[in-house]
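Q: Start with the shorter request: fold the first protein.
A: Done. Sequence, then structure:
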Amino acid sequence: MGNLNQYIGYAARVFETLPDPRIDTKVPTAISDIWLAALSLYFMQSASWLESQETLLRAAGASNAQSLFNIKTIPTKKEIMEVLDKTKPELLKPIFTSIITDLYKQGAIDAFTILDNKIMISVAGKIFYKSKTESCENCNLLYHLKLNEKEYYHTALGMTLCSPNLKETIALPPTFPQNVDPKVKIPYHVHDKQIYEFNYFKHILESKELDYIKQVPIFLCDAFYTSTKVINLIKSYRNSNYIIHCYNDSYRTWLALIHTFDKSQAVTLTKLDFANKLKYEYSFKNDIELIDDDNPAKINYICLTISPLLNKPPEKIAQPPNYHPLRRKPKPSIKVQKYSFITDLEVNETTIEFLISLGRLRYSVDTGFSSLNNRGYNLDLGLGHGQENLANVLSTIKALSSLIHEAENLTDETFKKLRRQFPTMKKTIEHICHKTSHTTFNSFAQLVKHK
């Protein structure tokens, strides 16, 4: 578990350089202890973990907060909220860079490489906080004109390294798009979130914040990235590629941008899965022009339709004499699944199946914060919303804890053995949290070996 100590060490060195916003600088709690305590809460996924360490400290004279996270003085939650609320989340980005650079040195990122030195980067925006009453300085503001109500929200633009061959994902530092002028009344139906999200995505590429990623990126994006402006932006950054996922409800939107597209001209391939009684129908068409610009970009369209393999249409069953609709058993519905994408990668009969699998990563790997919550990285650990930066900083620490867990799972064999004993990473961390809440350990290595 030496890598885990190293990753926490990376975080500690950055935490020591962060500004101390407290007026009374003679307080006994060091600034690094406060940040390490906040990280430990998300690492252990328990709002009461620090209280359990104080109990251990009083009973045994030692705690895991000291031995595992090098926290000399355990701070109160009020101290944590005060410091984190006054600090900008951008200051934590060097921790992400240090850990990912270390993963490159150990060769852990090589497993993510596909298609001759390329790597998938999933891009997604997510609203992770909404309220009609509670707000802070960095809240975005929406007006419901019909209801004459206002709503405060936070949105995050997250990026994740992913691969169709791995379950693990590598979280990149999130950014937090904001209204240009929060005082302007923006109608609810106007997708301002997407506009700010694109502006921040553009800033990330133009400022070369992703240059520590050595492979050429393939950006997996939402449907609203379908425009010549965005496509040219992506290709101008290190000649990157894209796979843009088109949802069913946005199908008309992006299809309206395509010039003279005739589906009958698409090449179609059919595969039958007799074991699962499914039919896979692949279709593609190359060099389709968009019509949203004088110099339109050319895209390649790919689509997968999954439908049941039926020998004959289902027969209608006659209802019994005393039939009542509320007492009937629901019939299994016959669902047809459709996945549509556009890309600039070469599409032919040989590559289409693999490209579809890359696009479908959008369903299994979501960089939105909802997926982190589903995996156990809960945002609400009793630290509140704050008045300035607290909500955004906590979201960044949540992504950081996910990165540390996955990095340890990729590089440490001892942790891998522990991880294989549980069905999910959430259960693994719950096991670690339970053990550290009742027993003191000198190191993470001793913790993992303990039965």
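Q: Next, the second protein, separately.
A: Sequence, then structure:
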Amino acid sequence: MTLTGEKKIFYLTFSLLICLHLYLIWQQRLLPFLDLPNHLAAATVLRYFGDITNHFAEYYRADLFLQPNVFHLLFCSSSMFPSVETANAVFMSLYVILLPLAVLVLIIRLNGHIWYVLFSFLFLYNFNVGFGFTGFFFALPLLLFFVYLLLDYPGDNSFARRSLVVTLLLLLYFVHILVMLFALFLFFAVGWYLGRHSLKKVFAEYLLALPALLLLIAWWYLYHDSYSSRLWSFLGDYYQNDYIPTFFKRLQFLGFDNYRLYPRFTGYTVSWLISLAVLIPSFYTLVRNRKELRAYLTSTASTVIFIFTGGALLCYFLLPTGLPGQGYLYQRFAVIFILATVTAGSLLSSKKSNRFRTVTLIILCLVHLSLYFDYFTRFDRDNAGFTPSFIAGLQPEKRLAGLIADNSFRGHPTYLHFPNYNIIWNQGLSTSCITKYHFGVIRRGLSETTLPVYDELMHETDYILGNYADVDYLLVKGRLPVDYNTFISRFKLVKTSGNWFIYEKLLPADN
């Protein structure tokens, strides 16, 4: 196939943007993603579990059997990489490549406007990435590839397609179960709508979901059967009392992605501008060509895309804010809705060459990249002294607790889980959230009195003052409240780097 001049420019731009984002990831020493240290610490525990160099086996236990959401954990704990952080950089690189590639493949398959693919770069560092939801954001390109497979239903009944459907559903289970559930929703909705005139075909298609459903049921029965009554009670109370107050905030979905670039109002303004720059062309195209839209909806491919878009919007507006032991649910779907809308808009956009539109889109992508380059490099610069050498020297068998009084970067919580770097860099023992999550796989091996629960937001002062008193080290960031003056006097300052401090517990003779 011979490429036209415009397509050559597109593929050159597409490749260049991927290379620049890969450079951004690899030049970064610390990534400013909130929960990422939790995931790296869990991978470190799993990778070095039982080694004589640490005491992980005494303090933790790991149960991986039939567990979902373990792809990042297994990937980063693999001994094929020199370190957990290197493995995560490779993982991030795969994501940076796969997300725009998945949008490209989908739009080409739909015969949509190819330049719309570049909009995906503006959401590489979406809400899920900023919060460090590693499994969820990596599942996004896999979800798009799954939607690609749905485009061939019901015409393609080949063994290859059916095998890929089964494989992707199973893979999504291990990457992130919430995305797998959404994929199942799309699978059943598309299967019923497009095959409703032949129940036999619908049933045959639905059988492809059976392995994933059996895996899901087995996992729930083994680990969460007792959680069911608590879950249903929570959901009943949530939709009765708490759902309506969240509705206004849900209308602000355009501000969820990219808002961490700057503090508060400025961050949300930038996020809105980026989202509007993406959605306005898509909605304008759909409205301007609404007469053609009906004709498009008669085709299988366009029907799938609009079910995809509507399903994402439905999840965004109907899912709860969180579940017991699991936070932030509906917010994760904002980027899925935006990517689906971009894909839908590409269907009806004019394929005629438009130099102004092309140049504007390229500039927008480069400006977005420069904003994140500044965001990442300033984060590294602000933490220039927070290095493995700062943690080095702490005895791995001794316990460290975190008191992150100043937890924000550019007005948003970012440092809450940095005590995990004692685990990651030093194979040490730290108070951490890796054992707190209901759907996690790393669990406590010893009681809370031996390794206290990590109160990352420092809300429970009495608990901290009572239970952190016996730890060996404190990692402190910022100035502690006056309530901690007597408590901190039992420790001596041993290391300082910028706004970071390490304290060691005073021996009886030192008191």
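Q: Describe the second briefly.
A: The first strand starts at residue 60 and ends at 62. The chain has two domains: 5-30+64-215+245-377, 388-510.
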